[in-house]
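Format is sequence with structure; example below:
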Amino acid sequence: MSDLIAKVADHVAILADNAILNAVENKLKKEKDPGAPPEFYARVCLPPAAQQDVWNLIAERATAAFGSSNNITHGVKINSAQKKPIVGIDPNFIVVRASSQFAPELYDTDGTLLDRSNPVHVKIIRAKFFPGARVRAMFSPFNWSHKLSGNGVSLNLAGLMAVDAPDAQRLAIGGVDTSGVASKFAKAGTGGVPANQTGNPGGADVQSAAQTSNPFQQNAGAAAQGANPFA
């Protein structure tokens, strides 16, 4: 099992919306069970190349629990198959929503385990684990059965590790994508702060990104060519 978890973590992922500093109420669970405890969660977007490793992690748990991975519920989908695809994420990326009642372990890029009770560490967490940040995700699968949904496997959020990616752009999660509008009117070289320090939509760092093809675009058709359990 640990090898399967590590294989998923081999893939650099994009962190989307999350609650990893403090647990929050899950409104859907709260409606069904008023006593449902708060939880930590993160939506993590993995490239198409991670599809087989994510499926192996789910299938191994399902086979151990139910004897087969056929017809199980897992909730993992490619971005384009979601009811509300995440803006700014490749449509063929796999979106995993993982949660836990226990605080997931958070690691800095040098492997330091970050302490939520340490104000300095909290600043690092806020600076490096934002929507759009690059991370390595560690998921722990668990099986369950429900009279309506049947057998299923969900993924616990065990840990996240920050990846050094200074060019990572913040995602417009839960709001308007203002950067796209601002870039239309931006005048390069007129700002007071160096563009490579701000992520300014009119700066050179964003312009160069726009001129470069999506590094994951070459894999965009890979998921569609075979049987995709997440489509």
